[in-house]
Amino acid sequence: MTLFNKTLLATAVALASTQATAAGFQLNSQSATGLGRAMAGDAIIADNASVLSRNPAAMALFDEKSLSVGMTYADVNVEVTEAVFLGNELGGIENAAEGKPIPNAYYINPVNDKFAFGFAAFSNYGTGADLSELTEGVSPSPVDLLGNTEVATINLNASMSYRLNDALSLGIGIDLIHGSGKLSRGSLVDVEADGWGVGGIVGLTYEVNENHRFGLSYRLSPEMKASGDIRYLITEFDDINIPLADIAQFAGFHQITEKFALHYTAQWSQWSSFDKITLQNDGAPEVDLKEYHWKDSWFVSLGGTYVVNDKWTVRAGIATDHGVVDLQSSLSIPDSDRTWYSAGFTYNINPKSSIDFGYTLVVGEKVHVEEDNALGMPITAYTESGANYFSLQYNYRF
To answer: Which locations, inside or outside the cell, does it occupy (predicted)?
Structure first.
């Protein structure tokens, strides 16, 4: 089965993912403050409740109830050029993706000086691209590889933290992940499916002193099962099973002067565990769609925060994000190495409430893609993807 192994796989991955835009389908966009510093130090800074998306142990740094509610608009651009199939020039698409709003909400409640709990809702993965335009007016055309894909996910998290001593705190949380998506490839594939998965996260924080601290977390990702209307060629399937990558990250925060702080993050995603996608009907053996040889990826960022006065704080950051595509590439997954450029600010309305704004420009490399259809006939093209992220967030401490 090779006809839709890659295109169905692309949707299946995004249908059930767990963690922000980064390699693969990650959407590193959980907060306005994070987008203002390229996510540098986000597992330890704890300047608002959105730290819950990265490290549950960081709730131990809070001595007041804290609420953060935000919205990110992802203006994603996917450009396809010089597409060729069997000697036919299919042309290109200037922008095959649509912008999407990404909401988030976080609440942290310190019970006492040892114990805290919190709840969060955010999105870790999502994608949307329509490549069907490349098949119009061309015959033959690789309709099995080009079409429309829409995916959305939400991660519901409940976590707790416990302070062991003045330096060390531990945290643990459970993730309930819902994914939904649609996929169409002419008359050959029609998918509308959704599903739930259960994962978890563990973390710790270590405070050297009030000016220097470190955070470490590990997110356990589930194997998702999505169900719905799944038609491949003339066969109906009940479920798609998708293994997902675990994610580990290390972050540091250093208050260099009274006004300036330096922070950083190193995030590793185990995309090599994404070995194959399977289809299944009740009572029947699983059907292997395809092995898909991705590789582990690293996201590394460096940022700085400067307190201008009691009303204004500014921040900036830069990051490098390694793509996951290794030996096999796909037009449905226009992945590449990317560079992040970020800036943002906080305005303190009063001692209890503040507003954050963050902006990130993601610049991807132009890559050459070659993908075979079911009959072994290749389509070649160049793809380039990037994004502008705009994020606004409101914070309140009770």
So the answer is: Cell outer membrane
Contact 62, 116 (CB under 8 A): yes
Place of tokens 């804290």: 66
CATH number, domain at 112?
Answer: 2.40.160.60
Q: Which residues contact 42 (CB under 8 A, 6 or more apart)?
A: 30, 31, 33, 34, 50, 51, 53, 54, 251, 265
- Convert the pLDDT of each residue in 140-175 to its tens digit: 666 666 667 777 778 999 999 999 999 999 999 999
What is each CA distance from 240 to 10, 129, 302, 369, 373, in whole angstroms? 12, 21, 38, 26, 21
Query: Do residues 390 and 369 make contact, with C-beta atoms less than 8 angstroms apart?
Result: no
Number of domains the chain is built from: 1
Angle at Cα 167 formed by Cα 163 and Cα 170, nearest 5°? 40
> Per-residue DSSP letters for 165-205?
SSSEEEEEEEEEEEEEEEEEETTTEEEEEEEEEEEEEEEEE
Provide the Cα torsion 347, 353, 355, 356; round to 10°: 90
The arithmetic mean of pLDDT across residues 223-230, rounded, is 84
**Average pLDDT taken over every residue of the chain:** 84
Q: Which residue in 57, 23, 53 sits closest to 213, CA to CA?
A: 57
Quote the radius of gyration of the chain (alpha carbons, Å): 22
Tokens of 185: 């490839």
Q: Which of 76, 73, 66 is nearest to 103 (CA)?
A: 73
> Residue 241, Cβ neighbours under 10 Å: how many?
18
For 307-331, what is the mean pLDDT? 85
Q: Which residues contact 364 (CB under 8 A, 6 or more apart)?
A: 334, 336, 337, 338, 384, 385, 386
Q: Which of 84-98, 230-244, 357-371 has the lowest mean pLDDT?
A: 84-98
Residue 337 belongs to what domain range? 5-397
pLDDT of the residue at 134? 72
Alpha carbon distance, N-terminus to C-terminus of the chain: 57
Res 13: pLDDT = 36
Find which of 85-89, 222-226, 350-354 is predicted with most confidence, using mean pLDDT: 350-354
- Closest to 20 measured CA to CA, from 217, 198, 154: 154
